[in-house]
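Notes from the 1:1 (GR / supervisor)

We went over the backlog. Supervisor wanted to see one worked example end to end before approving the batch request, so GR pasted a single chain during the call. The sequence is below; no edits were made to it. Supervisor asked that the structure be written out right there so they could see what the output format looks like.
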Amino acid sequence: MGLYAVTTGQLASPANVFITNTGGLDVYPESPPPGNLIDWLNRILIEEARRVMRFKSHYFLTLGHPQKIASIFLIHSNEKLLHIHTIARRIVQLGGVPAFSVENLFVHSYPRVAINYVFSKLIEENLHAERDAVNSYRNLIHYLSDSDLTTSRILTIILKADEKRVEELVDWLGENVKKLGVIQNNKNIFRRDIQPVL
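Structure output shown during the call:
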C-alpha cells in the first residue's frame, strides 16, 4: 500500500520523509506533518516560497557584478515560482487551499544581511536548500509509489528541474568562486539592523 490512499486522502507516517538540513536552512521536521497529502504539499509550497525569497534577495545582492551570478539567481527564483504555481494548482485539484500566508512564510526569520558577503556563501546557501528540496521530493515520490500517479508525475518533473539546478550551482562553485570574491559594501547598501527588501 502506498503512502497516499486516493479514496481517503490520508497519509501513513513513515519516518524521516522530510530531510533535516544540516546547513541550518529550511529545516524540515524529522517526521512528516500530520494529515493528508494536501498538508504535505502545503509544507513543500511554503519551503519553495522561502527559496524564491532567498534567490531573489541574492539576486539583488549580486546585481551588477561582472560575473553575472545575479542572472543565475534570478532565473532560479523564477523557476521556483513556477514550481509554486504547479504545486498550488495540484493542492486545489485535491480539494485543498494553498497555504499562502505571511504567518506561514515567516515562521523562521530571514537571515540578516552582513555588510561584507562572500559570494561563495550565497551559492552554498542555495545549494544546501536545493539539495534538501531534491531529497524531500525523492522521498515523497518514493512513498507515494503508484497510489497517486498524477502527483508523483508532477513532483518528478519538479525534481528533475531541482537536480539540474543543483548541478548548475555546483559548477558555479567549482569554476567561478575564485573570481567572485567579496562584496565591498563601502556605501552601506544594506544595513545590519534591517531586513533585505524582497
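Supervisor's comment: The longest helix spans residues 149-180.
Batch request approved.
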